[in-house]
Amino acid sequence: MSDTILKVSGVSKRFGGLQALSDVGIHIERGQVYGLIGPNGAGKTTFFNVLTGLYTPDSGSFELAGKPYKPSAVHEVAKAGIARTFQNIRLFADMTALENVMVGRHIRTKSGLIGAVLRTPGFKAEEAAIAKRSQELLDYVGIGKYADFKARTLSYGDQRRLEIARALATDPQLIALDEPAAGMNATEKVQLRELIDQIRKDNRTILLIEHDVKLVMGLCDRVTVLDYGKQIAEGLPSEVQKNEKVITAYLGTGH
């Protein structure tokens, strides 16, 4: 089995007269935390949205775990094995934490509509298994005691953890985290780093977009840097930090 989880090349995307992405590609190995960084307007979120089916690319090739996939729709990407969180938290506010994770888990269920309507023994058994696994995931991310709390009542940091638990519930090949540290205080960032590190130790693979460069450089195995929709650097964090193009992009005029 190949150790390559995600192989993407030649991705371009235009919005009217704006060339948002130009020939971007990344290669992520199993068990890596892979960082995607760049100044505001660099194209990070556009690239993320292309990978996860929110935007249709103008060009590009996509392979997940050695198999081609087309990022043409969000639900198809989820079925293929990519789960994502969002920069702006998107939870079902009036559902409990447990119910939010169960929603994510349902993408891997087998019982159809008839089973749900008739509440067949198979459906009930599967629902019980979903609830059990969802509770395990809440425990895993550190908020198991809040299973019966409505999502809107959780602290900001715990809502972020809940999003990650819901993403994990889909049994993804790749977890794509969109600025998970945004809005967190220092303590919450430390806890987030510990959680991401634990996820990696459990041989899961993560693509991380993050403005907190210190967090990225201290956590990621490899990093790609975008600027004005173009890939200006890729490599180990220690290499990327010394790249003159990266230094100019972050510190030079125009940013």
Automatic annotation (TrEMBL):
One of its GO terms (molecular function) is ATP binding. SUPFAM superfamilies: P-loop containing nucleoside triphosphate hydrolases. GO terms for biological process: D-alanine transmembrane transport; L-alanine transport; L-isoleucine import across plasma membrane; L-valine import across plasma membrane. One of its GO terms (cellular component) is plasma membrane. Keywords: ATP-binding, Cell membrane, Membrane, Nucleotide-binding, Transport. Pfam families: ABC_tran, BCA_ABC_TP_C. Residues 6-253 form the ABC transporter domain. Transmembrane segments: none annotated. This is ABC transporter ATP-binding protein. It comes from Polaromonas eurypsychrophila.
